[in-house]
Each structure stands twice: as structure tokens, then as C-alpha cells.
Amino acid sequence: MAAHMARIRSLSRLQRFGLAAYRRYSSGTGYPNISLSTALPGTPKPVFATVDGQEKYETKITTLENGLKVASQNKFGQFCTVGILVNSGSRHETKYPSGISHFLEKLAFSSTAQYGSKDEILLTLEKHGGICDCQTSRDTTMYAVSAEVKGLETVVNLLSDVVLQPRLTDDEIEMTRMAVRFELEDLNMRPDPEPLLTEMIHAAAYRGNTVGLPRFSPPENIDKIDQVMLHGYLRNYYSPERMVLAGVGIEHDQLVQCARKYLLGVKPVWGAGKTGNVDLSVAQYTGGIVKTEKDMSDVSLGPTPMPELTHIMIGLESCSFLEDDFIPFAVLNMMMGGGGSFSAGGPGKGMFTRLYLNVLNRHHWMYNATAYHHSYEDTGLLCIHASADPRQAREMVEIITREFIQMSGRAEEMELERAKTQLKSMLMMNLESRPVIFEDVGRQVLATGKRKLPHELCDLISKVTASDIKRVTAKMLRSKPAVAALGDLTELPTYDHIQEALSSKEGRLPRIYRLFR
User: Fold this and answer.
1) Selection from 357, 394, 379, 399 nearest residue 476 by Cα
2) Which of 17, 78, 315, 456 could form an S-S bond across to 383 if both were Cys, CB 3.0 to 4.6 Å?
3) How many Cα neighbours within 13 Å face the side chain of 357?
4) How many C-alpha atoms does 291 have within 13 Å on its Cβ side?
């Protein structure tokens, strides 16, 4: 009887799906062989979520009585990222020895009024699955914690203590001196010179002022910085009206409640009141050149030696992130793109950007050509970093100056649309990460008092035209170049020649004639 029923089932399958679709497992049971492009019979139709391209939950902002801003973005989940951002960085060290912000970054999350050591802080966070970090840049200091949502009160209490009640003991400051010295040594030994070149290009572009001041402590200042000096700096810059408490993944009212409890009316360890020494200098773009002769032959990632290269970075003044031209400059930077001559992700990454098509594809001896855009509250810098054999430094510089000049030509429609799509894609993909949303919320609210949502930024990107790119490039090419050079600089053209190339129609360096080589 069972065998008879099996034959009937097999026959029905044969009639339903056809002979070619009928197969047998080794066990003898049959199954239909259906093409992957055909829906399985009897499967219910899929229901897709609708996406309107806009964030449903907007950033909420509350200003407390003492001037502190509380900003939040709800993103549902078990974990949240909360932190305090301070309008303080290396650009504010005009009246102090450079390096204070570097010290404060290393001293963050050390002992406080409530916690006897960094270990105590880490153990407290561990109970809520939390991690902490502090990062300083030229214009912002950011203390952040990621932890479970149910530990929010503990996290805000800890952040208040870390920012306003650090002990800054002599032992901690001495340990920080050692850490800073080690970081400076590491900076000079890295195979990737980009952090060092970024320092040099800022020093060249804004000589001796604001964002041109050193981001890392100069060696001669390490022993000068002590607790008294740190307290004097903190008294000026760590005031409530210069801070934002930002959170992602929590309810706004809950964050405001915690802020009122732990950040309102708290007396800092350095005492209340300001001395009025806040530096309000506006960045002054100067242009210029910073050169460092350095033997790059011993820089290695391990047993395989790196080739000896000369590194050049050339920059021109762009604009502040508060200006309307910031979006066209961001599109221009994406259009230039570039990277290293070897891509670990395969040949598809950025292969249509100008620095790939015009530089790396045509000049096999170029190891790197990458565009960067640094933007601040009052200025900006668009630069190109290139690397090659020291003997070809002059030709490399001319290739880069030509690329700057060609930016002023009309962008092709496909090229422009591709750059705009890539920029929107990068923006939206980055903002899928909770810590990135936190930093975006905090930085925007700290700088402008509000936040542009991703869909607003995407709309602005979509509106950029070829004439916008041409206009901002023409404006940028009127500024003096900033040049940073590292390595064997025997063949490096003079600064005047680089400036002359950027003033010419084709971006070519003046011809030089040598009787002897």
C-alpha cells in the first residue's frame, strides 16, 4: 500500500513539473528541480518595507540654564553611544605652549574625584558592556562611551566626573609625558607618512596661527606642561556653553534628565569662573612650504622592505563647512578621489576618479595619488598627496599641479553624477554606524547649534552642478599653494616654481636647463 502511494506522489510531481525537473535523492525520494529565476510553487508573495529616504526621528536639542546643549538621536537597540564634545583643540593654544590638547587626550578617563584609577572606570563600564575613548582634533575634544542603554545614568555621571573632576596627578602627568614621547617617535617611524604630512601641510597653510598650530605636542614642550597649566587651560575652555552632551540610541527626555542631575551646577576641580582668555582668532591662510629631509629607505612593514619614496602634499584654500560652497568642494574631492597604486579591495575601488584615471593609470611609477579635504569653522584646505621615487619628484609635482589646473575645466555629466552618487552612498553607509551618528550629531550641534539630517545633505549634493564645481575651483586656484615635502628632496622644485605652475594655463613647471647633472 505504501509503495503504491509513493508511485502516485511521484506521478503527480512528474505531471506538475515535467520529466526534466524530476530527480531522485540517493534515498529514493523525489524533488522538483526548479530554476532559481522561478518562484517556488505555493510561496506567499513577499512584502517589502517602504523607505521614504528620510529619518523618522529627527535630532532633538535642548539648551540647559548653564548653556550646555543636550542633543540626541533615537536609534533603537540595546546599546547607546553618549559623550561630551568640547569646543577645544590645538587651534586654541595660541596663548599656551602647544601640546595641551594632546596631553588632555592621553589623560582622559584617568583618576577622578569618584574613581581612584582608570581601572576602576573600566570595571564600572564593564558592568554595562561599555567601552570609552577620547579623541582630540584641531577644533574639538570628544569624550565618548558606548554601553547598554540601561546604564545611561552611570555613563553620564562618569562622563561628568571625567570631564569636570579629573585629578591630573603628578604620576599621571609623568606617564602621559612618556606616552607622548612614544607617540612622537612612532609618528616618525610609520610606513604611512599621511599623519605627518597632514601636520606639515597645516603648518605650511596657516603659518603660526589657529589650525596651523601643532596637533601633537612638540618635543620641547613636553616637560613644560604641568597641572597648573592644564587647569588654567581647562578653566577657559571647559565651560558649559562650549560643550554638547550628545547621545544616540536613547530617549531625549531621559538624557536631559541625566544632564540636569550630573552636569547642571557642578563645580569643576579647577574652580568656577572664566578668566576671559578664550582665543577667538579667525584662521589666516598664508600658504608656504614645509620641508623635511628624511631617509625613507629604512621604513619597513616587516621582513619586506618598503621602497624609498619622496612624499609631496600640495594644498589650496577651500572653504569653511558653514559656507554653501562646502558641498561642491566635497563633490570635487570625491571626483578627484584616488588612492594607492595597489588596492587591497581589488581594481574596482574608485577606479573612475580622476587621480586613478589621469595619474595612477598613466604613470606606473607613481605609488600614490590621493585627494583630501580638511574643513573647519572658518577655513578649509583641499590637498593632493602623491608618492614616487625621489628621482621623479619634479615630474610628480608637475602631474599634481596639472590636475589642479584641470579641475577648473568643465566636469563631464557622467563623471559629476558618479561623484555625487558616491558621496551620497558614502554618507549614508557611514551613518549606519551608531558611533558615527553620535559624532555627526555632536559636531554639528557644537558648531551650528542644529543638525542637518542626511536626506537634507543628499538633497544639497544632488543640486551641485558642473558650473558650481568650476566656480569653486576658480576661487581656490586664486590662493597661494601650501606645500609639504618629506623624504629625499634633491629633485623637488622650488616653491616659486610650484606657485608659477599653479598660475599657468596648463599647470606646467618652468623649464630648467642644467649644464651638469
Assistant:
1) 379
2) 315
3) 10
4) 11
Q: How far apart are CA 69 and CA 243, in angstroms?
A: 7
Do 332 and 259 reside in the same domain of the chain? Answer: no
Distances from the Cα of 370 to the Cα of 189, 333, 334, 398, 427, angstroms = 21, 9, 10, 15, 19
Residue recorded with cell 629604512: 298
Domain boundary among 247, 263, 279: 263
Residue among 365, 371, 326, 380 nearest 353 (CA): 371
3-state secondary structure of 392: helix
H or E, element range at 333: helix 326-336
Instruction: Tell me what pLDDT residue 78 has.
Output: 92
- The grid coordinates of residue 29 equal 525520494
Query: Which burial class, exposed, middle or buried, applies to 16 when counting CB atoms under 10 A from its CB (0-12, 13-18, 19+)?
Result: exposed
Query: Scanning the structure block, which residue is given the C-alpha cell 542626511?
Result: 454
For 364, the grid coordinates are 606606473
Beta bridge partners of 385: 313, 370
Here the cell at position 215 is 596637533
Q: What does each C-alpha distance from 430 to 24, 359, 433 come to in angstroms?
A: 48, 28, 6
How far is it, in rounded angstroms, from Cα 367 to Cα 307?
A: 10
**pTM: predicted TM-score of the whole model, two decimal places:** 0.86
Are both 177 and 305 inside the same structural domain? no
Which whole-number Å values give the CA distances from 385 to 310, 328, 342, in the listed order?
11, 20, 15
Let me know whether 190 and 312 are in one domain: no
Q: Round to whole Å and give the CA distance between 335 and 327.
A: 12
Q: How far is residue 292's CA from residue 67's CA, in Å, rounded to a whole number?
A: 44
Q: Does 230 share its domain with 375?
A: no
Residue 283, domain member (yes or no): no
Domain membership flag for residue 83: yes
Is 296 in the same domain as 361?
yes
DSSP annotation of 174 reads: H
Distance separating alpha carbons of residues 22 and 290, to the nearest angstrom = 75
**Residue 340, domain member (yes or no):** yes
Q: Each residue of 350-375: pLDDT tens digit?
A: 578 999 999 998 999 999 999 999 99
Domain of residue 324: give its range.
288-503
Q: What is the pLDDT of residues 433-468, one digit of tens each?
A: 999 999 999 999 999 999 999 999 999 999 999 999
Our CA angle for 109, 113, 115, nearest 5°, is 55
Q: What is the CATH number of the domain that holds 196?
A: 3.30.830.10
Residue 463 lies in a domain: yes
75 and 218 share a domain?
A: yes
Domains in the chain: how many in total? 2
